[in-house]
């Protein structure tokens, strides 16, 4: 705790001047961020056989407690800061597809970081995964799986990575088969069936007990007409699980403000039913994918919107305190900058992107919305939406509203995972949390035991924390 506070103190001290050190990361940011999913692809909406680190709930269910580690945030959030003892698996993001299907690329510092990451995971008995793809890394999946010859070469590329880096897990984050994702990705009506044929060839080429997963949209993989496939059961024979990316359901691309990661939407007015954990699990299981092989993707970040106070606040019936309006109309010409990890610039397709407005959970605190206990500060309007079971905050002075997740919404998601018999959770991203407020909440809700202190908060780590703070200050 103490050392993660120090780490975060360094992060929180970053000002927006910090953005000047981000341009070198732009490629990665754009290749990594799962956002923009709904806007550009899926209409109207984005294992565990590991021998290591299994956690057992009171009734004997082995839950996956997973997170993605974003390599491009390693300067601010080095691998030492991961709460390893609280995860069963951690997935490094990303390796990217290339025009040569025989080659999956680790770019920038990733080739150096990945071996260190795997070593540290293994020291902690945690399954070490690598995610291939991401929003900006999925350009060539379609080509790589298109023909029998290409599939065989792509299988070899993946198994080479697995043996070279001693990986325990591979996560395919193809955004998305049969959909125009970021814009310049190759696409074919046969993507989903080709992907299946590829996985069927890959699985027997991997070591026994190897974990294969896919990060998926809230609707099942597209069929040849681009609609959700009616039957994806064959994928459950070759994948250990899918992680449903139940976030970016609403964002700056939506017509109004809405929950980033709704637990439920079937209780919302029809116009506000854009997807949720409830409807995503229903869609995947209806298409033959077992609930016991579904991991719920959860978000340690939210989306911010510029909302004039006339549109954000409504007087209460009793004439008392004002409350926040549901699905408020925001000013779509102004996307506010999010936290210090937000950046604008060209994406991998060469298209200029504005700020995303993303605010990590720690950014809610540095941004003056929440206190260090994760609760709304006085002077900030707060509302917990009972249908999506997620919170909203509003600063009437800056006129910024943020839809995000907190300890209460993470506990509700943990409850849902348990009651629905899902496989566990996977959080995007490890570095987004503050003092493990979100992680501890979902673990407790799942009945996962509080791990003994890792003992990692010794002088060495404190020195690393301070060192990073200084280093960032200098480069910013
Ligand atoms: C890892 O697992 C081994 C064997 O189960 C055990 O001896 C060791 O203490 C574990 N290490 C950690 C850091 O949990
Ligand atoms: C197979 O891969 C090659 C690159 O090695 C690519 O040029 C070709 O387009 C791919 N085939 C298909 C059908 O996409
Ligand atoms: C294998 O890993 C090493 C780093 O450990 C890297 O230098 C090398 O390029 C990798 N080779 C392949 C084929 O991935
Ligand atoms: C899709 O697969 C079918 C059946 O294998 C094939 O006839 C068709 O040419 C493929 N279409 C494309 C665009 O690759
Ligand atoms: C695609 O999926 C939709 C919805 O599940 C279904 O109505 C349609 O028949 C499917 N098309 C093909 C070609 O499988
Ligand atoms: C979702 O909403 C429906 C309709 O109100 C309700 O029946 C159901 O219990 C809710 N599920 C969860 C997990 O909140
Ligand atoms: C902003 O919203 C208006 C009306 O709601 C819409 O016509 C316009 O296309 C939107 N602009 C952008 C950039 O999304
Ligand atoms: C992106 O924005 C920069 C700075 O505003 C501008 O110089 C550049 O021409 C833009 N590029 C594209 C492709 O629009
Ligand atoms: C709201 O935003 C304003 C302007 O950025 C800032 O000065 C203020 O501290 C924030 N918080 C509250 C509670 O007003
Ligand atoms: C554990 O309990 C949940 C409900 O709380 C149930 O769905 C699941 O099937 C149980 N698992 C086992 C192995 O009994």
Strand-helix topology:
Layout: H1 2-12, H2 26-32, H3 37-40, E1 55-56, E2 62-70, E3 89-97, E4 104-105, H4 110-123, E5 127-133, H5 141-144, H6 148-165, E6 169-173, H7 191-202, E7 211-216, H8 235-238, E8 241-244, H9 277-286, E9 294-299, E10 301-306, H10 309-312, E11 313-314, E12 323-324, E13 345-346, E14 352-353, E15 358-360, H11 361-366, E16 381-385, E17 390-395, E18 400-403, H12 407-420, E19 424-428, H13 437-445, H14 459-475
Parallel strand pairs: 2-3, 2-19, 3-5, 5-6, 6-7, 7-8, 8-9, 9-19
Antiparallel strand pairs: 1-2, 3-4, 10-15, 10-18, 11-12, 13-14, 16-17, 17-18
The structure holds 2-acetamido-2-deoxy-beta-D-glucopyranose (10 copies).
Could you explain how this protein is built, in words?
The protein has helices at 2-12, 26-32, 37-40, 110-123, 141-144, 148-165, 191-202, 235-238, 277-286, 309-312, 361-366, 407-420, 437-445, 459-475, and strands at 55-56, 62-70, 89-97, 104-105, 127-133, 169-173, 211-216, 241-244, 294-299, 301-306, 313-314, 323-324, 345-346, 352-353, 358-360, 381-385, 390-395, 400-403, 424-428. It is α/β, with parallel strands linked by helices and 476 residues long. It has a single domain (2-304, 402-475), classed as Glycosidases (TIM Barrel). The strands form 4 sheets. It has an 8-stranded parallel barrel with strand order 2-3-5-6-7-8-9-19, surrounded by 5 helices. Strands 15-10-18-17-16 form a 5-stranded antiparallel sheet. It has a two-stranded antiparallel sheet with strand order 11-12. Helix 1 (2-12) runs parallel beside helix 14. The protein is globular, with a radius of gyration of 21 Å. The site of one 2-acetamido-2-deoxy-beta-D-glucopyranose has 6 residues, from loops.
């Amino acid at each position: 705790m103490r050392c993660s506070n120090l780490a975060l103190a360094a992060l929180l001290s970053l000002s927006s001047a910090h953005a000047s050190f981000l341009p070198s990361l732009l490629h990665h940011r754009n290749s990594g961020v799962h956002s923009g999913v709904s806007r550009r692809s899926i209409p109207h909406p984005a294992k565990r056989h590991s021998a290591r680190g299994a956690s057992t709930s009171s009734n004997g269910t082995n839950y996956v407690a997973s997170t993605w580690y974003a390599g491009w945030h390693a300067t601010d959030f080095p691998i030492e800061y991961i709460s390893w003892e609280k995860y069963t698996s951690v997935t490094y993001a990303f390796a990217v597809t290339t025009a040569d299907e025989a080659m999956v690329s680790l770019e920038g510092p990733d080739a150096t970081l990945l071996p260190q990451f795997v070593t540290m995971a293994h020291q902690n008995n945690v399954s070490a995964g690598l995610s291939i793809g991401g929003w900006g890394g999925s350009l060539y999946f379609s080509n790589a799986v298109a023909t029998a010859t290409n599939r065989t070469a792509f299988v070899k590329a993946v198994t080479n990575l697995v043996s070279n880096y001693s990986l325990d897990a591979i996560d395919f984050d193809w955004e998305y088969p049969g959909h125009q994702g970021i814009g310049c990705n190759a696409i074919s009506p046969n993507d989903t069936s080709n992907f299946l044929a590829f996985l069927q060839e890959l699985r027997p080429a991997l070591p026994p007990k190897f974990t294969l997963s896919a990060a998926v949209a809230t609707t099942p993989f597209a069929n040849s007409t681009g609609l959700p496939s009616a039957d994806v059961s064959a994928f459950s024979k070759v994948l250990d699980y899918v992680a449903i990316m139940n976030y970016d359901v609403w964002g700056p691309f939506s017509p109004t403000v809405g929950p980033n990661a709704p637990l439920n939407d079937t209780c919302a007015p029809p116009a506000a039913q854009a997807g949720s954990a409830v409807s995503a699990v229903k869609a995947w299981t209806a298409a033959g994918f077992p609930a016991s092989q579904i991991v719920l993707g959860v978000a340690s970040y939210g989306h911010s919107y510029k909302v004039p106070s006339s549109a954000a606040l409504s007087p209460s019936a009793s004439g008392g305190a004002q409350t926040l309006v549901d699905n408020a109309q925001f000013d779509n010409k102004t996307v506010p900058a999010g936290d210090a990890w937000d950046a604008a610039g060209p994406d991998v397709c060469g298209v200029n992107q504005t700020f995303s407005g993303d605010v990590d959970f720690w950014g809610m605190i540095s941004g003056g919305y929440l206190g260090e206990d994760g609760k709304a500060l006085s002077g900030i309007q707060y509302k917990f939406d009972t249908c999506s079971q997620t919170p909203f905050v509003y600063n009437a002075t800056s006129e910024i509203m943020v839809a995000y997740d907190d300890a209460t919404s993470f506990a509700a998601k943990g409850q849902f995972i348990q009651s629905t018999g899902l496989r566990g959770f996977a959080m995007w991203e490890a570095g987004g949390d503050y003092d493990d407020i979100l992680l501890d909440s979902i673990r407790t809700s799942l009945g996962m035991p509080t791990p003994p202190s890792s003992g990692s908060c010794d002088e060495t780590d404190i020195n690393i924390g301070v060192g990073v703070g200084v280093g960032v200050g200098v480069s910013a």
